[in-house]
Amino acid sequence: MAGQPRTFQSKKQNKAVVFIGVAAIIAILVFILISYAINTFRIYTVVPDYLRYVIACVVGLASGALASIAAKQTIIVIDEESFTYTKGKKVEKYPLDSFAGTNVVRNYMNGAYTGSTRYIRFKTPDYKIRQIEIPFEEKDYSDIVSLIKKNNANSISEEEKEEIREAFEGERRINIPRDELLKSFSKSRKARAAFSIITLVISLTVCIASYILMDIWCFLAMLVMFGLLGPTLAIAIFLYGRKESIAAMKSTPSLFTAGPDSISFDDDVIPASAISGIVATPPSYNSTGKDYEFRKVVITDNSGVDHTYYFGKTLKGNKKMSLKEYTGVVTLLEIWSFSNNIEFRQDLG
Predict the structure, then answer these.
(1) Looking at residue 63, what is its pLDDT?
(2) Is residue 2 one of the residues assigned to a domain?
(3) More confident residue, 68 or 318
(4) Which of 92, 100, 201, 231 could form a disulfide with 121 if both were Cys (CB 3.0 to 4.6 A apart)?
(5) Could you report the per-residue pLDDT of 16-45, keeping only the tens digit for each?
(6) Are 75 and 9 in contact (CB under 8 A)?
(7) Residue 134, domain CATH
(8) Where among 70, 93, 113 does a domain terminate?
(9) Alpha-carbon distance 64 to 27, whole Å?
(10) How many angstroms separate the CA atoms of 173 and 255, rounded?
(11) Is residue 97 part of a domain?
(12) Cα–Cα distance between 162 and 156 in angstroms, integer?
């Protein structure tokens, strides 16, 4: 970055457009709800017709006003020493060495993923943790965190850097209980297959019984409900995570080794000179929500090809599929990457 600060900013919103849009949508919805309630409970004889318009307009205008006030642009500036967060008139500034980590909360509605809320944490002078929401997409968020770590690393003296490099004069090894992990994967696949078969059998049984005991219309209804949806559900359950599970079982190492100028996963030896970047799933995250919640280390070589290695699932999944050794792997990878001047990132999805 060579002394030049870097700026990240959210899209600037037109407050007038936000006000009109939100006010109109909310007013229409409120009017529909009030009209439905009046007609349902038959109170239209005692409620003046104009009242529904007045209430809808008041609620709509109030919502629009609140939305336009909340529509503030977020600007983040990172230089070699500090992190400055600006939202509207609110400005916060923290030294980079007070960086206390990240937090990503994945949001769901009725089981469906709706997006992530991303935070960066800093230590305050009174020894508390300030958690700042970062309203950016994954790439910008990852760039911000990477830049903070990089600038912090740049502040380390050459003597300290040399001490870190000397730590890799010999090899560091971490054994991975691969066989135990693969047994858990195998049991999970068998359980999923058994559940799929049970679902299919129930669906077919219901269809046959309805054909024997019910009239044609009931049979057709059951055929649609169970004859089509049942097998579809069974196939979905069977295929869920199958491709990724097979890849994980093939690409889970039993030994990770870090040497002075190379790393290896079992017999795959990768020299530092051939690596352009490393991305790893954060050990502390309960769920990345991607790739069926697998923990992965992705090594990108100088030609742009990714080499992916799996280390079980995140903590949210089956505990028997979570490798406690993974934390050590990521820690060692980050230190090794720093000592070899290789960009290391955690997948902050």
Answers:
(1) 92
(2) no
(3) 68
(4) 100
(5) 888 888 889 999 998 888 888 877 777 666
(6) yes
(7) 2.30.29.210
(8) 70
(9) 9
(10) 7
(11) yes
(12) 10
What band does 237 get if pLDDT is binned at 50, 70 and 90?
Answer: low
pLDDT in the model for residue 291: 42
Residue 340 and residue 264 share a domain: yes
pLDDT at res. 349: 64
Rounded to 5 degrees, what are φ and ψ at 2?
50, 45
Look at the chain and report how many structural domains it folds into: 4
CA–CA distance, 326 with 226 (Å, rounded to integer)? 43
From residue 286, alpha-carbon distances to 1, 269, 313, 316 in Å are: 33, 30, 9, 5
What is the Cα 236 distance to its own chain's centre? 23
User: For the segment 183-216, what is each residue's pLDDT rounded down to a tens digit?
Assistant: 777 776 777 778 778 888 888 888 888 778 777 7
Which residue did the predictor score with more confidence, 317 or 191?
Answer: 191
Alpha-helix runs per DSSP H in the chain = 15-40, 49-70, 138-154, 158-166, 178-213, 216-222, 229-239, 242-250, 326-339
Q: Evaluate if pTM is beyond 0.85.
A: no
- Residue 163 maps to a domain: no
Pairing of strands 82-87, 129-133: unpaired
How would you classify the pairing of strands 344-346 and 275-280? parallel
pLDDT at position 3 is 60
Kindly state whether residues 264 and 241 are assigned to the same domain: no
In whole angstroms, give the CA distance from residue 85 to residue 25.
Answer: 32
Distance CA 175, CA 177 (A): 7
The three-class DSSP label of residue 108 is strand
Look up tokens 């009174």; give the residue.
126
- Residue 253 CA to residue 268 CA, distance in Å, equals 9
Alpha helices in 241-325 (DSSP H): 242-250
Kindly write down the DSSP assignment for every residue of 41-102, as one continuous string: TT-TTTS-HHHHHHHHHHHHHHHHHHHHHH---EEEEE-SSEEEEEETTEEEEEEGGGEEEE
pLDDT over 60 at 1, yes or no: no
Residue 167, domain member (yes or no): no
- Amino acid occupying residue 144: I
Q: Can you give the CATH number for the domain in which 301 is found?
A: 2.30.29
